[in-house]
Design goal:
By secondary structure, the protein is α+β, with helices and mostly antiparallel strands. Helix content is 56%, strand content 19%. A hairpin with a 2-residue loop joins strand 4 and strand 5.
């Protein structure tokens, strides 16, 4: 079982040590890519693809080869990383030299030094999906590691969800703080106006409407 894999256990510890109050999404994505490279046997390079609407880009990568292989897929509008991202499934290319689903891309990838690849879909948020892309210089190296990679990708998706939730919560807290500060300034202005004009309690409502721009 993948859960008992010693490298996976070490990977989960590394992902679990991420401090979301000290890092941003880019750091988390880079950490995921590096952890995958260190965990999946035979890996040459790793990247993380993010897809929002019709736009796809590589948000993190461990080497230029992974970035190049990703961008060739974006240019063509098809490839294992895009299919994995949109379907949420695993796309295994055991041997680039015999790949028939994406022949043009696979041929270019093989010439560039990639002999096999594995892309795992990453659910990130409602408006965005992604894929963990793992490339190797040896054919067939990922054939018996698909389940391991899927388990790792599942925990990586949790890490991405956590950082997204933290950033959303932090943004909301900041907005609330700014709103409270604005309210404090408004109340201070009301106090000054009422003090200068010796307003009665009856006039307070009119002052409040004036300060708030006529809103109740």
């Amino acid at each position: 079982m993948p859960q008992a894999h010693p490298d996976l256990a070490a990977a989960l510890i590394r992902l679990g040590r991420i401090k979301y109050d000290e890092v941003d999404l880019d750091v988390v994505l880079s950490t995921i890519a590096q952890v995958a490279k260190d965990t999946i046997h035979g890996t040459a390079e790793v990247s993380v693809t993010l897809v929002q609407g019709a736009e796809a880009h590589t948000a993190a990568y461990t080497g230029d080869l992974a970035l190049t292989l990703d961008e060739w897929q974006y240019e063509q509008g098809r490839g294992p990383c895009l299919d994995a991202a949109t379907t949420g499934t695993a796309m295994l290319v055991p041997d680039m030299s015999t790949e028939s689903r994406w022949p043009e891309w696979a041929s270019r990838a093989h010439k560039a030094g990639a002999a096999s690849s594995l892309s795992i879909g990453l659910p990130i948020q409602e408006a965005m999906v992604g894929a963990l892309n793992i490339y190797a210089a040896v054919a067939g190296v990922f054939d018996d590691q698909v389940e391991l990679a899927q388990t790792l990708a599942g925990y990586a998706a949790i890490a991405l969800a956590n950082v997204h939730l933290y950033e959303s919560t932090a943004t909301l807290a900041q907005q609330m703080q700014e709103a409270m500060q604005s309210r404090a300034v408004i109340e201070q202005a009301k106090g000054i106006i009422m003090g200068q004009r010796r307003c009665s309690a009856v006039a307070e409502s009119l002052v409040d409407r004036a300060v708030h721009g006529g809103r109740d």
